[in-house]
Design goal:
single chain, mainly alpha, Arp2/3 complex 21 kDa subunit ARPC3, about 70% helix
Length: about 160
C-alpha cells in the first residue's frame, strides 16, 4: 500500500463516482433479475491499473444502496461478487477476453442466488439472465472500451 499515491486516490474517487453516476443514469436496467449494469464497463480499467479496484468496489457498494436494490444485503453480496470478478480479471489481465468471464460468472452466481432468496426469483433462470446481462455489458461494451484505451498510450499513462 506504500505505492498508493495521491493520483491513485484521485483516480479511485473519480471512477467510483463515475460508477455511481452510471448506475443512477441507467437505474432502470441496473438491477433486478434481468440487468444490464452499464457501469460495469469500468471494470476493464483494472487491466491497466489494478489499484483501481478500491474505487470500483466502493462505487459498487454505494450503488447497491440506490433504489431498485436490496440495501445492505445487496451492497455486501454485490460488492463480494464484484471483488471476486475483478480479482479474476486482474489475474487474467494479459488475456482480457478470458478475464472478463470472471465478473460474468461471479455476478451471475452470487446475484442470482441473492435474487432467488430475496425476491423468490427462479434460481437457474436468474443466474442465466444476470450472467447474460453482465456478458453483454462486458463483451459488447467493455471489451471495445478496453481496446480503445489499449491503443492510446496517453490514456494508459493517465490510468497508471
Amino acid at each position: 500500500m506504500k505505492d498508493f499515491k495521491v493520483k491513485n486516490l484521485t483516480l479511485n474517487a473519480l471512477f467510483g463516482a463515475v460508477y455511481i453516476v452510471l448506475v443512477l443514469a441507467f437505474n432502470f436496467m441496473s438491477s433486478g433479475e434481468i440487468q444490464f449494469r452499464i457501469a460495469e464497463v469500468l471494470l476493464v480499467l483494472v487491466i491497466f491499473n489494478p489499484k483501481l479496484i478500491y474505487g470500483l468496489l466502493l462505487g459498487t457498494f454505494i450503488s447497491n444502496f440506490l433504489p431498485g436494490g436490496f440495501g445492505l444485503v445487496d451492497a455486501i453480496f454485490g460488492t463480494t461478487a464484484s471483488l471476486i470478478g475483478i480479482l479474476g480479471l486482474i489475474l487474467f489481465r494479459k488475456k482480457p477476453l478470458i478475464g472478463l468471464f470472471f465478473p460474468v460468472i461471479a455476478n451471475g452466481l452470487i446475484i442470482g442466488f441473492m435474487l432467488h432468496f430475496l425476491a423468490e426469483a427462479p434460481l437457474l433462470l436468474t443466474i442465466l439472465t444476470v450472467s447474460f446481462g453482465q456478458a453483454v455489458v462486458l463483451y459488447l461494451l467493455g471489451y471495445p472500451f478496453y481496446r480503445i484505451i489499449s491503443k492510446r498510450d496517453d490514456l494508459i499513462e493517465l490510468l497508471k
